[in-house]
Amino acid sequence: MYKTFYGLKERPFGKTPDPRFLYLAPQYEEAMARLQYAVEEREIAVLTGEIGSGKTTLSRALMDQNDGDQFVLVVNPRLTPTQLLRELAIRLDISPGHYRADLVDALSDRLLQLHQEGRGVVLVVDEAQLIPGKPTFDEIRLLSNFQLDTTNLISIILIGQPELRKRLAHPAYAALRQRVGMWFHLSALDARDTAAYVNFRLKVAGAVNGAVFSRPAMEAIHGHSKGVPRVINNLCTNALLLGFGKEERPVSVDTVNEAASEIVT
Ligand SMILES: Nc1ncnc2c1ncn2[C@@H]1O[C@H](COP(=O)(O)OP(=O)(O)O)[C@@H](O)[C@H]1O
Ligand SMILES: [Mg+2]
User: Fold this and answer.
1) Is the CB of 11 under 6 A from ligand 1?
2) What is the pLDDT of residues 85-137, one digit of tens each?
3) Do 178 and 106 fall within a single domain?
4) Domain boundary among 186, 205, 228
5) Domains: count for the chain
6) 149 domain residue, yes or no
7) Cβ neighbours of residue 100 under 8 Å, at least 6 residues apart?
8) Which of 69, 74, 171, 175 has minimal Cβ neighbours within 10 Å of its Cβ?
């Protein structure tokens, strides 16, 4: 197994989300700080980034960091407004068998109750670019109207691919846009942060710095992956498998190139 050969105790680029492997490159740290602020201020936040850039990972880290709050994760946002309300109701332990008006009242009461217990409610809609139509976005905006005096009762985090931002830029979404308290776009990692990311994961997995990928190999990892974490992970795993097959240590640039030609990005 390649792990032993490269001095690793576990798989450094595994697919299961594991907070120990969370690497807060500067932009992630900034994104986290701003998301945290949005949670505390009960604002609407919009987080965008290309596929595999780390959006879902950050939302999970945010959840871990606020474990006293009630997070409601919506991972399939192909929902009509009423379906969205029902989903929220179910997750907040309200029976969804109400008429719409009753549902809204029940939600309002529940949010108030949780607020009085000192628990915030955070609605996270992942892949929000898949929300089918404007009515569902309108419903999301209306959710932000639940207030006690001037205190908002719910934080809403919309996560999506870059087209989410494009969509919200349309004049029809002006009312929602005005409610958004924070916008953040996750970019790809630059060469330095890519190397730091890879080294961080290797170190958590037990490796000694520099012993796994040669320096040119590391540069090639950035070149092929364009700094997208999910692609970096796939590429590195593939390169380690190939390198192990050749008993090559550290993994060479040729092996990384070969690994890149085999993976679909
Ligand atoms: N900051 C990070 N630290 C560690 N791993 C990360 C980080 N960002 C992304 N990843 C890894 O990259 C992969 C893709 O991240 P993900 O959050 O699913 O991206 P997205 O939701 O933007 O498509 C995951 O396997 C994740 O573990
Ligand atoms: Mg995701």
Assistant:
1) no
2) 999 999 999 987 768 888 999 999 999 999 999 999 999 999 999 999 999 99
3) yes
4) 186
5) 2
6) yes
7) 82, 85
8) 171
In this structure, what CATH number is given to the domain that contains residue 69? 3.40.50.300
Distance CA 163, CA 155 (A): 22
Asked whether 161 and 185 are in contact (CB, 8 A), the reply is no
Is any atom of ligand 1 closer than 6 Å to the C-beta of 13? no
d(CA 76, CA 130): 8
- Does residue 204 share a domain with residue 120? no
pTM of the prediction?
0.94
Does 227 sit in the ligand 1 pocket, CB within 6 Å? Answer: no
Q: What is the pLDDT of residues 208-241, one digit of tens each?
A: 876 899 999 999 999 999 999 999 999 999 999 9
Choose one of 126, 160, 186: the last residue of a domain: 186
**How many angstroms is it from 54 CA to the middle of ligand 1?**
3
Distance from the alpha carbon of residue 236 to the mean position of ligand 1, in angstroms: 14
Ligand 2 centroid–CA 53 distance in Å is: 8
